[in-house]
Amino acid sequence: MGLFGGRKTVFVDADILVIGGGMAGCGATYESRYWGRDLKIVCVEKANIERSGAVAQGLYAINCYMGMQWGENQPEDHVRYARNDLMGLVREDLGYDIARHVDSTVHKFEEWGLPIMRDPKTGRYQREGKWQIMIHGESYKPIVAEAARKAATKVYNRIMVTHLLMDAAKANRVAGAVGFNVRTGDFHVFRAKAVIVSAGGASHIFKPRAVGEGMGRTWYAPWSSASAYALPIQVGAKMTQMENRIVLTRFKDGYGPVGAYFLHLKTYTQNGYGEEYEKRWYEDTKALVGDYIDRHPVPTCLRNHAILKEVAAGRGPIRMVTKEAFQDPHKETVGWENFLGMTIGQAVVWASQNIDPKHINPELTTSEPYVMGSHATCSGAWASGPEDYAPAEYQWGYNRMMTVDGLFGAGDTIGGTAHKFSSGSFTEGRIAAKAAVKYVMEKGRDQPQVSEKEVRDLQQTIYQPLENYRIGRNEIVAGTVSPSYLLPIHGLQRLEKIMDEYVGGISTNYMTNGVLLTRGLELLAMLKEDMSNMGAEDLHQLQRTWELDHRLLASESVTHHTLFREETRWPGYYYRGDHMKLDDENWHCFTLSRYDRNTGSWAMEKAPVYHIVD
Ligand SMILES: Cc1cc2nc3c(=O)[nH]c(=O)nc-3n(C[C@H](O)[C@H](O)[C@H](O)COP(=O)(O)OP(=O)(O)OC[C@H]3O[C@@H](n4cnc5c(N)ncnc54)[C@H](O)[C@@H]3O)c2cc1C
User: Fold this and answer.
1) DSSP 8-state assignment for residue 136
2) Which secondary-structure segment (H or E) carries 331?
3) Which helix (H) or strand (E) holds 523?
C-alpha cells in the first residue's frame, strides 16, 4: 500500500473551527452557537470529548468561583490573588475578564446537572478554600461535553490536528487546519473563517519521576501533548511566559492532589523528623525574592522552594500530617473520596504501599515541570484583551485573538492568566467564541483561501513517518532498532532527557543557567533535524510522532524564554544559577517570542506588565 493508499481525504467547511474539545473547547463550542445561531460550528478533538482533556477522570472541586451572589469575592480580589501567586506578573485585563464571568459558567454547570455540594448551614456552595467549591465531579466532563455536542454543527472525534492552514491570499491570517483520524487514518482538511485553539497544555516535555512502564503516570494528563502551543507557534503567533513552567507538590508516586487536604482537612506538612521547616527558610528566601515572601498567601513556588531546600539539607522526606485529621470519620471519608473522584491511582498506590493515612503520614514530593496556562502558571499565546478593560497596548482587534488574524485561543492555550482552572477555562472559551463570532460576522464575504499545494505538501509530510517505517524496517536484523529511522518513544525520551538535564528538570533540582540552556538549544536543534527520520509502525505511532513534534517545538520555546529571562522569578519552579535573584528592576515584564518557520529562528522581546487593579 502506498503512502495514501486506502485513506480518504475529508474536506470540512466551517465558520468557526474549535480545536480540542476539553473544558475551553466545550465552552467555545457552546458559546459560538449562542452568538452564531446560523453558523457552522465544528469541534475537532483527538480523543472523544465525552472523556477528554485534563478533566477526563472527573474533579472533586471547581477551583475558580467568585461567589459574587453572596458577596464572597469580587473579580478584583481574584486578580490580586493570581498576581500575588505569580510573583507580580499576570495579564490583569484577561484575568479580570474571566473572573467577572466565571460564576455564570458555574451556574450553568449546575443547571446542566453537575452536583455541587452545599453548606447545610448557609445553603451556599460548600467552600474548600477561598476560591474553590466542592463538587461530586466524576461526571463533570460528560456533562460539559453534552452542552458542546448539542451546540456543535458537528464534533469530529479521534482526529489529531497537526498543523494550522494559512490564508493563501493574505499574510498572517489563519484559514483552517489539517489532521488525521487516529483510527482510520483518513486525512482531514478543515477550512474555517476563524479558528479557536483549545488543545490543552504539555506533559512529558521534561523527564518524569515515574520511570519504565509507569512513565505514563504523571500529574498532568499524558495525552496533553503541547498542541495548544505548537499549533500557534508554527504559524508565527507570539507566545508569552513560556519559561513559567509549573512544578507541583503532590503525594508521592500517585501525584494525588493536596488542595482538599490543606484547605478542607487542614492538614499540614513536616520534614522527615517531624519538624516544621518553612520558617527555617524564610531569611534565605527573602534574600532571593525580597518581600514577595511576606505576601499572603505565600506564592506556590516559594512553598515548593522551602521543600526543595529542606530535602537538599538532608531532612527529607516531607510528609503530610494526616494522622490527626483522619481521626475524624467525616474528614477521613472526604480524604478518600477526594481521590476516588479524580485520582483513583493515589488510593491504589497507598494500598499497595501499606499506607493508611490514619496511621501513617504520607510522603509528598515535587513533580517534574509541566507547561500550562490555566493552573498556577501562565504560559501560552499572547492575546488581545477585552475592549472595555485592556490597556491600548494589549488590544489589536478581538478579545482573545492572538497576533495571527482570525486565530483565537482559550484555556491552557492563552498566556498571562493563571488560576482559571476548569471553570475559568470554559469561561475563556466562551469569551473567545463570542469574539470569534463577531470576527466572522464582520468579515462577511471576505473569506480566507486555502492553497491546494499547502494541503498536499502537508499531507505528504504528515504520513511520511509511516513510509519511513515501511521502507526502513527491512533493515532491522533484531529487535526494533533500525539504522534508518527513529521511533517516537526514543525521540520522546531524548527530548525529556535534554529538557531535564539542560532546562531545569528534576535531575538538576530544577537548576539551569545560560550555558546549559544554550547547549540545550543545540541538542534540541539536532533532535529537530532527526524528526524527518521518524518511523511510525501504525496510526497510533503516527499520532505519537506528531505529539512529539508538538512537544519539541513547545520545548524549544520554553528554552528560549528561560534563556531570555535573566533572573530567578519563581524559585521552586526553576532556578537560573547565573541569576539567582528576582530582579524587579529589569524583569518586571512579560517575555514574548515569535518563531519564524521559514528560518527556524526565534525573536525575543519584553512587554510591559500593567497593574490595573490596585
Ligand atoms: C491533574 C490536574 C488536576 C486539576 N484539578 C483541578 C481541580 O481540582 N479543579 C479545577 O477547577 N481545575 C483543575 N485542573 C485544571 C483544569 O483541568 C484545566 O484548567 C482545564 O482542563 C484546561 O482546559 P483546556 O480546555 O485548556 O484543556 P483540556 O481540558 O485539557 O482540553 C484540551 C483538549 O484538547 C485535545 N487535544 C489536544 N491536542 C489536540 C490535537 N492536536 N488535536 C485535537 N485535539 C487535541 C485534548 O484531547 C483535550 O480534549 C486540573 C488540571 C490537572 C492537569
Assistant:
1) E
2) helix 329-340
3) helix 514-530
SS3 of 7-38: CCEEEEEEEEEEECCCHHHHHHHHHHHHHCCC
Please name the residues in contact with 209: beta carbons below 8 A apart, sequence gap of 6 or more. 365, 367, 368, 506
**Spatial contact of 14 and 153, defined as CB atoms under 8 Å apart:** yes
Q: Tell me the pLDDT tens digit for each residue of 59-112.
A: 999 999 999 999 999 999 999 999 999 999 999 999 999 999 999 999 999 999
Three cell numbers written together for 162 = 497537526
131, 335 contact by CB (below 8 A)? no
- Each residue of 535-579: pLDDT tens digit? 999 999 999 999 999 999 999 999 999 999 999 999 999 999 999
Which residues' Cβ are closer than 6 Å to ligand 1?
A: 19-25, 44-47, 52-55, 59, 61-63, 160-161, 198-200, 219-221, 223-225, 227, 374-375, 411-412, 421-423, 425
Judge contact between 131 and 81, C-beta under 8 A.
yes
Alpha-carbon gap, residue 399 to 433, rounded angstroms = 9
The rounded distance, in Å, linking the Cα atoms of 16 and 443 is: 13
Q: What is the C-alpha to C-alpha distance for residues 451 and 165, in angstroms, rounded to an integer?
A: 8
Q: Which amino acid is at 142?
A: P
Determine the atom of ligand 1 nearest the C-alpha atom of 179. Answer: 42
Q: What's the Rg (C-alpha) of the chain?
A: 23
Predicted TM-score of the model (pTM): 0.97
Q: Which three cell numbers stand for residue 544?
A: 505519537
In terms of DSSP H, where are the helices of 364-487? 421-443, 452-472
